[in-house]
Amino acid sequence: MEERVKCPICGTDNRNEPALSYSREPWEIKECKACGMVYLENPPASEALEDELAWEKTFANESKERRKRSPLLYMAGRAPKAAVQRVTKRNKLLDFVTKNIKPGPILDIGCAGGHTLASLPETYIPFGIEISHELSQVAASAFGPRGGAVIQADALAGLAQMPRNEFNGIIMTSFLEHDTKAKETLLAVRRVMREDARLIVKVPNYASWNRRVRGSRWCGFRFPDHVNYFTPDTLTQMLSKAGLGIVRFGILDRLPTSDTMWLIARKAH
Ligand SMILES: [Zn+2]
Asked: What is the 39 CA–ligand 1 centroid distance (Å)?
């Protein structure tokens, strides 16, 4: 039996709504008739996602596919910019962290090999949650000497092992779009945040012009491992449902000319 999920924000059943044209057999993308959330209605079971459909592998396959379909666009869109983007992206995150998060314990959800937090100033104590055994060990060897640690688990199981009100900052970059339990994860994130903590989120922007222009060839579509396709509006709704309020989400953080958007949130009271 195939599992159909309800809207991850408002719980509306959209089974009788038509799938969006971006859907790719057998995966169906729906737009919630009640709140406008765009999501994958029939995501694979999470065990499958962890193993053979691990997103790194899917990403490699998607890139290859895209290169095959439109080599010139692929070259123009990716190759010359890639190196520059890698550097500026990381700088943007480090800049966001040092300007918005107080020194002390900081948690990266889906920390991979720990490269992001490892380059933070020594005043931050890096912690991580990572599902991959291999990557979690790499991250642990980077965080351990700095007083931090890594839990090898999925986000919900990892967060449940963390003490309440523990962290000055939480990082979720390129994570929420993969999470079939995004609201539950955000509620669990809220629990481990100190009162004045900040949460930094980065996700693909479904409202980007590039998605409208390139249609199903937009780089944000990854089947089946992207399950949430947020717009600025639905991302805000999702956070609000989890008791989180927006600190920063200006026009420069969600430009329609960019494929991604950045947001800083805090506990709402
Ligand atoms: Zn909805």
From this structure: 9
